[in-house]
Amino acid sequence: MNFYLKKIAATSAILLSTAMLSHAAQTDITIGMQLEPPNLDPTGGAAGAIDQVVYANIFEGLTRYQADGSIAPALAKSWDISSDGLTYTFHLNEGVKFHDGTAMDAEDVKFSLDRARSEDSTNAQKALFAGIASVDVVDASTVKVTLSSPNGGFITNMAWGDAVIVAPESIANAATSPIGTGPFVFSNWVQGDRIEMSKNDNYWGAPIALKKATFKFISDPTAAFAAMMAGDLDAFPGYPAPETLPQFAADPRFTVIGGNTEGETILSTNNKDEHFSNLKVRKALAHAINRQEIIDGAMFGYGKPIGTHFAPHHPDYVDLTANSNYDPELSKKLLAEAGYPNGFDTTLKLPPPSYARRGGEIIAAQLRAVGINAEISNLEWADWLKQVFKGKDYGLTIVSHTEPMDIGIYARPAYYFQYDNPDFQQLMKDLTAESDPAARSNMLKKAQRIISDDYVNGYLFQLARTSVINSKINGMWENSPTQATDLTGVSWSD
Amino acid sequence: MLHFAFTRLISLSLSLIAASVVIFSVIEIIPGDPASFMLGINAQPDTIAALRDQLGLNGSIISRYFNWISGMLTGDFGISYTYRVPVSELIMARVWISLPLAIYALAISTLIAFPVGLIAAANRGRPVDLTIMGTTQLGVAIPNFWFAMILVLIFAINLRWFSAGGFPGWDQGFLLSIKSLTLPAIALALPQASILARIMRSSILDTLDQDYVRTARAKGLTRSQAIWRHALKNAMIPVLTIIGMQFSFLMAGAIIIENVFFLPGLGRLIFQGITQRDLIVVESVVMLLVFAVITVTFIVDITYAAVDPRLRRKQ
Question: Smaller CB count within 10 Å for chain A: N or C?
């Protein structure tokens, strides 16, 4: 009898201690993502999913984006800029090691930048490095980068995921086993299911709270809902089933975050199209669109109206929505003036994301009300890239431009919306050469006004990024100044 | 017999060659370039050209076709454009989910269908039979993805007995992996079991009308004795044919269920391959499935001929 009593006491003691252990803060996290990255080399592909896994977690650059969108030092602890704006001298943090134990030094920086700008480079954002004339190693912890012309955005360019510092010894295998300098070490990838990473105990920067992170790939919105509700996932940044958000918001176990992104969602217009080459037609198009109806109908109310191609949370943003307010009567009048009193037929080619597919239906209905008959065709991404982006065979399309600070695309006449305005192109050249913050700010504001007044595209809304997270998680990014799931500041409360 | 096997073998090779030509050309026709898909909308043309070169996309269609075929014959399926790992590795990882899932679902479906079909046949026209027929009619009609969502709602979200999906990997423990395949297997098995049970029932009833069963009954066997001793064996041939067909369907056709339960199986590999224009993966997986189905058909043909002498003589 006594024996059994002892056994029971021992068992309950064990149970009690495990119960107490489970009260200590959790140190692992499972994050849901809709798209699986095709590979894990951020310097060799455009897929946003790559950066969402590796940026700041596994790979780091000379500088980095912070949660509020500002740029902070990372592997470079400081830098000096020569008075002519041509020479950047980066002072690197010392004692930084790659995950394979090799040291990160000036040679690695030179290798990474030279590799990204080389002739056979497959870097998707090669333009970031285009202005670099030479990269020189001064000593092990100092690198001198010389530009061919001044570039006020160079420090920001170096914060992109495409500009992370990699090592010549390990880059060949980065697609499947990435080796960086970040606070997490890549540990496992079950293709189609998940990627796991664990804490880097030799991290050079401030220590992190998490010991293990798992990214799980769930493409189906209903499955994503089920996985959150069942507790399989701790967080789902960019949650794909907005119709279920009220349910999460009402549940104390979860927090719903509606954050900003850098995604200007626009009704891209072919400026060389027979109808849309006419400014009056483009203006008519802009006034035919009811933005709030699209945000409510397609985005469940999440998203901020924009009147130009610029992120509303940026300090230099100018609210130009009134320039293209919803006014179907004015729209009809403009169409008549342009010679289309009975409207015309055009195409509306939609890529797969729901903002495009759902928004496209609403826009087509709004355009029909003023006489423009837009025939919708739904395309897969690869087909969209071929027909619309490369072939420029379209009238209208809807796409979210998610790269940060990308107003410069309006200076590329060969870009798919084919806007060719020499004044704007000159303004962008001046902007690149200007490093005085006040002057830059004025130029950016002027640029926003030019494209708004030219009605280059229909400006719809800034894409929101709603995330559902466990209420006990702290430190997740609310906004997405760049595509990233930065876990360095994330922790659990008890 | 040898002559029969030989002609079947020739027709098998011809089917494979024809299939490879069709698969290759259909996939080459799909619009969209893998390199521009991978590099996105900010990439410069020279970057895309450099990547196309790396991926070996610049040769002529004919030379790429022969490279693909000769690679497959030597077991080299090529390197996935997007994942940059050998296609054979990708396929192997997926097969170890799709194959067990198919076997699991088939086992459940057979375990349900056999007794249910037998009971219905043995009670033809009685309330039990009518109930079973009504229920299986419903089982055939219910879409399996809807049933899957209901299972998730009940067992994952409300009861929390299972996770809502995903696959931990066999190295994480056999039971854990089997557990994660249970809800998908049930969702897949329900319609299959309903079909199989109905086939089982009608097949037994067909044989019950045959002369040899009537003779057995005349010799004094009861209805169920006649079923057990004579009808069942002969009723199995159509049932086994259906099971064979269901198995090939379950291997490749579980894609919707794989999506609901986010399982990384073969169906999703093809689906992802198509959307990402990872053409080499799509070509190889589809070819492999065609090979599997044609080979199974070949084996079945040969077995039929071995069992039934009439088939041999016809040649």
Answer: N
ipTM of the complex: 0.73
A46, A193, A406: residue with CB nearest B43: A46
Using one digit for the tens of pLDDT, what is the confidence trace for A122-135? 888 888 898 899 99
| Pairs of CB atoms within 8 A across A/B | 157
Return the H-helix or E-strand segment holding B247: helix B232-253
pLDDT tens-digit readout, A231-280: 899 999 989 888 889 899 999 999 998 888 889 999 999 999 999 999 99
Say if B86 is an interface residue toward chain A (CB within 8 Å). Answer: no
Q: What average pLDDT is seen over chain A?
A: 90
pLDDT digits (tens, 9 = 90+) for A374-405: 999 998 877 888 899 888 999 999 999 988 88
